[in-house]
Amino acid sequence: MSRPVKLSETEIHAKLETLPGWSLQAGKLHREFQFASFVEAFGWMSSVALVAESMGHHPDWSNVYNRVSVDLNTHDVGGITELDFTLAQRMSELAK
Ligand SMILES: C[C@H](O)[C@H](O)[C@H]1CNC2=NC(N)=NC(=O)C2=N1
User: Fold this and answer.
1) What is the ipTM of this complex?
2) Which residues have a Cβ under 8 Å from the Cβ of 38 and sit 6 or more positions away?
3) MF terms per GO, please (predicted)?
């Protein structure tokens, strides 16, 4: 696969307009997800894990009971790329 391209801050802010709930925090795409229960949160994480593995692109995340805190960036280029926006979109869709 070709190396993903690091997006500029202007590009990131423009693309964030289309992603409700997500923001730029400490150079990463950030969102806090909340679910009805631990089982729902963990079930969502399991679904996301399959998507992430198929993309070869993985979230930084942590889970406390029914909440999951997510940060996305592309370690390989030290910034945010289209891969992060694609994963963010899939995460939001799976949480609906
Ligand atoms: C070789 C492997 O595909 C790479 O190290 C992938 C794995 N998952 C990854 N996930 C994230 N978030 N960023 C990466 O740069 C990255 N690189």
Assistant:
1) 0.96
2) 65, 66
3) 4-alpha-hydroxytetrahydrobiopterin dehydratase activity
Pocket of ligand 1 (CB under 6 A): 56-58, 74-76
Probe target for ligand 1 pocket from 55, 57, 84, with the most ligand atoms within 8 Å of CB: 57
Domain extents in the chain = 28-95
Q: How far is the CA of 36 from the centre of ligand 1 (A)?
A: 30
Q: Tell me the per-residue pLDDT of 22-56, one tens digit each, with 9 for 90 and over.
A: 999 999 999 999 999 999 999 999 999 999 999 99
